Amino acid sequence: MKINNKTIFFLFALISFLIILFPNGLSGQVIHSSQRYNYIIHKEVQEKHMTFLTSYQTGGRSVASKGNLDCRNYICAEFEKYGLLPLSAKGYVQEFHLPKYSGKGGNVIGYIPAKNKRAKYIVVGAHFDNIGLIGEKLYPGADDNASGVTALLQIAQAYGKKFSECGGGKFNIVFVAFDANNMSMLGSRTFVQKSGIAPSEIECMINLDQMGSNLVPPGKNKEYLLVLGADKLGKWNRSALEFANTTFGLNLDIDHTYYNSQQFYNIFYRLSDQQSFTEIGVPALLFTSGITDHTNKETDDLSNVSFEVLDKRIRLIYQFLWLIMQ
User: Fold this and answer.
1) Where does the pLDDT of residue 19 fall: very low under 50, low under 70, confident under 90, or very high at 90 and above?
2) Is there a contact between 187 and 129 (Cβ–Cβ < 8 Å)?
3) What is the pTM of this model?
4) Is 174 helix (H, G, I), strand (E, B) or coil?
5) Model pLDDT for residues 85-120, shown as the tens digit of each residue
6) Rounded Cα gap, residues 81 and 75, in angstroms
């Protein structure tokens, strides 16, 4: 077997990552323990969430609409069922005023406390609002961003189960469904300003935005994931993701370049809720499957979601979190 320089570099980076992350050695127990809750992540559950989130009942989830409120209540009920704790004494919903609207917006926030009360926070977020109805035309927003909310719910469910059986981990984990992304990211901006968590207390933010498509691969492999911001995470670099990707047999094509365009990388990295965190100095990752011809159109429906690939992406992020929580 011929070993080239690229292979040597990857192996060196991987070994360095493991030494930093697991100074006492990586026993099979760490890897095996994560599999205990792997069964929770399931395509049937994902289809259930996606079907509701894109239904006529939620009406495209536009800000301040009845459908948006129905979606908010749905996420609240799921968080409660998973055993997540409200971050505020007022409950799961963080309400905020909307310019030019009579109603209020509302983020849904649940968290899992760490073993150490002084531990830092990891924030995992996904926006649930979308365009909604324009006249009688429904913009269901399946990929944008029912897929991200579905990923958020599945990961929260797995960690909620782990918390109920084993307690918290190294970090506090906050799960946030952001409202009003389509209003200059007002929901995530409200969170960073009024959550009560100082920027210095946030170790990392992970944003899930458009996770369901396999239509715009960076190469020939349609089982892919675009990752932006990994260069800002110190030791949580590409090696961590690659380790989770290969060790657990997911084998996604992970692209860190946004189609080899630094210009579009920089633009797209500023277009979603991670921007609210990077503005205050918090390192943030964006996981996405990219913009497609169906984004912000009536055709962004379930027929253009690959549940096979969505499931793999959710598993990757779940495993990635598990590694950095050790």
Assistant:
1) very low
2) yes
3) 0.91
4) strand
5) 999 999 999 999 998 877 899 999 999 999 998 999
6) 10
Structure tokens of 177? Answer: 């469904």
User: Considering only CA atoms, which of 83, 283, 235, 91 is closest in space to residue 168?
Assistant: 83
CATH topology of domain 29-324: Aminopeptidase (3.40.630)
Read off the tokens for 216: 């715009």
**pLDDT value at residue 5:** 56
Closest by Cα among 175, 79, 158, 151 to 311 = 151
Residue 310 CA to residue 110 CA, distance in Å, equals 23
The domain spans of the chain are: 29-324
Report residue 236 as tokens. Answer: 């949580």
Residue 208's nearest CA partner among 257, 153, 130, 138 is 153
326 SS3 class: coil
Is it the case that residue 24 has pLDDT exceeding 50? no
**What is the phi-psi region of residue 24: left when phi exceeds 0, alpha when psi lies from -120 to 50, beta otherwise?**
alpha
By the 8 A CB rule, do 132 and 60 touch?
yes
β-strand pairing of 104-112 with 224-228: unpaired
Alpha carbon 180 to its chain centroid, in Å, reads 17
The reported pLDDT for the residue numbered 25 is 46
Per DSSP, the residues of 71-120 read HHHHHHHHHHHHTPEESBTTBSEEEEE-TT-SSEEEEEEEEE--SSTT--
CA 299, distance to chain mean position in Å, is 23
Residue appearing with tokens 């070993």: 3
